[in-house]
What does this fold into?
Amino acid sequence: MKVNIAQITHEGRSFDVFDASPYEFTMATRGKWEMIVANEKKVFSSNEIMKVSVKEIAIPAETCVVPCLYNRHPVGAVISLMDSKGPKLIEENRVIDAVLVAAYQDGQVEIDDLLGVIHIFPVAFTRSAEKPTKIR
It folds into this structure.
């Protein structure tokens, strides 16, 4: 199946085209918790969504990241994890260095505030998985 992996750059929207297919995997029962910690101060209004820089979290190749929905900041919730270098395949090492926060009340995020927690689980592919192929 052809998919466009889009991102916004300084020049505008860009995308790479991949041939990819769904596949099954097994998730390990042993994982790791990582804290999402703000690396900048941001002032939010209720119902506002903003990108917040966070302290880098290394995500190893062939791991699945699952948010812990229980732990959140009093101003809002992390709704997306971001790598400033753009999207990457699960087969590659990744870095979380920013998040999107959706505010549900007015307030601010301070440097070193805990924004949330993620679970990182190693995965093993259980069926013949084809690595996505870049078309253009």
